[in-house]
Each structure stands twice: as structure tokens, then as C-alpha cells.
């Protein structure tokens, strides 16, 4: 309905040399995730189902907490999972401002998540989404949704092109 869908996932990342470890981690959590190769010989085991995140991953890391900066990032991420689980952003009976505000809360938390990592594509996309959501007073039209998607693509392409120009 809004043109954007909030999603959460929890990842463990390792060199693909350690793919056995990634498979073992997935097995430890009852194979509720998936193991995927990424760029630069890196692999991840990813957990994406909200029920798995809420009922398995979060309780595990509450019982066995992460340490250092990761513990603070985990707390922020847990807020995202609970926000998505609450489904305050979902519905067809359009009480649009609270639904929009749920999306805004998600975007602001996400913008703050892993903020110490430099990620210009993430930052740009979230700035565009936040600005777009703030501009809405009602359910977005199809044209507004398509304009958002177009702006996100343009922003991503510009940042990638700028990076290529810097690399040359």
C-alpha cells in the first residue's frame, strides 16, 4: 500500500573458506535461515522470517548477549523487529498518519543502525524515504510510489557512478 516494505534480517558473515561454520550456525538455529555467497569470497547465514527473529534469534542473544558496539546495535535492531511484528504499518482501513509514522520510526531507527559504517547508498535512500514519508498526508498514489522508486534508483545509480569516477 505504501510502496515500501520494511524488512528485518539477522546475518552472520564469514569468509567462504568458513562456509562449514556458516552451515553449522544455520543448523544450530534449526536451519531456519539460509547460507548465501556474497562478493569478495564472503558468505552469510541470514535469518529473515519475523517469527524466527522474534522467537529464536532475539531470545538467544538476550540469553547470550553480544558485547561491545554490537550489543547496542542489537538493541536498536530488536526495536525494528518488534515494530515490523506489531504490523502498525499494515492495513486497508487507512488511518494513514499512524501508519506513516510507524514507517518513519522504522526509517529513523534504521538510519541510526550501524551508523559508524560509511554507507552512502543506505544513507541517501533513507533520506529520500524519510523526506517522502514526511510529505505524505494520505495514502500515496501510484504515481507517488513510482516517483519514490525512480528517485531511489537515481540516487543509487548516481552514488555508484560517483564511486566509479573516484576509482578511476
CATH level 3 topology: Endonuclease I-creI
CATH architecture: Roll
Uncertain spans, ≥5 residues at pLDDT below 50?
none
Return the CATH class.
Alpha Beta
Oligomer state equals single chain
Treating each run of at least 4 consecutive H or I residues as one helix, how many helices? 6
Spatial order of the strands in the main sheet?
1-3-2
Tell me the strand percentage band.
Answer: 5-15%
Question: How would you describe what is shown here?
Answer:
The protein is mainly alpha-helical and 168 residues long. The chain has a single domain (10-167), classed as Homing endonucleases (Endonuclease I-creI), CATH 3.10.28.10. It has 6 helices and 3 strands; from the N terminus they run E-H-E-E-H-H-H-H-H. The protein has helices at 19-28, 50-63, 69-86, 96-112, 120-135, 142-167, and strands at residues 10-15, 34-37, 42-47. A 3-stranded antiparallel sheet has the order 1-3-2. Strand 2 (34-37) and strand 3 form a beta hairpin. Helix 4 (96-112) packs antiparallel against helix 5 and helix 5 (120-135) runs antiparallel to helix 6. The longest helix is centred in the C-terminal third of the chain and has 26 residues, at 142-167.
Please supply descriptive tags for the structure shown above:
single chain; 168 residues; mainly alpha; 6 helices; globular
Amino acid at each position: 500500500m505504501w510502496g515500501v516494505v520494511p524488512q528485518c534480517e539477522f546475518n552472520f558473515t564469514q569468509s567462504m573458506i568458513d562456509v562449514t561454520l556458516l552451515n553449522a550456525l544455520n543448523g544450530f538455529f534449526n536451519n531456519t535461515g539460509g547460507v548465501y555467497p556474497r562478493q569478495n569470497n564472503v558468505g552469510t547465514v541470514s535469518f529473515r522470517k519475523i517469527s524466527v527473529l522474534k522467537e529464536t534469534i532475539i531470545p538467544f542473544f538476550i540469553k547470550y548477549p553480544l558485547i561491545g558496539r554490537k550489543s547496542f546495535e542489537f538493541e536498536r535492531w530488536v526495536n525494528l523487529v518488534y515494530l515490523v511484528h506489531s504490523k502498525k504499518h499494515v492495513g486497508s482501513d487507512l488511518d494513514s498518519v499512524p501508519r506513516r509514522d510507524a514507517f518513519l520510526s522504522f526509517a529513523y531507527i534504521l538510519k541510526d543502525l550501524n551508523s559508524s559504517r560509511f554507507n552512502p547508498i543506505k544513507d541517501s535512500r533513507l533520506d529520500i524515504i524519510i523526506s517522502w514519508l514526511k510529505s505524505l498526508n494520505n495514502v500515496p498514489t501510484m504515481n507517488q510510489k513510482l516517483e519514490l522508486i525512480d528517485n531511489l534508483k537515481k540516487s543509487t545509480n548516481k552514488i555508484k557512478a560517483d564511486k566509479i569516477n573516484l576509482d578511476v
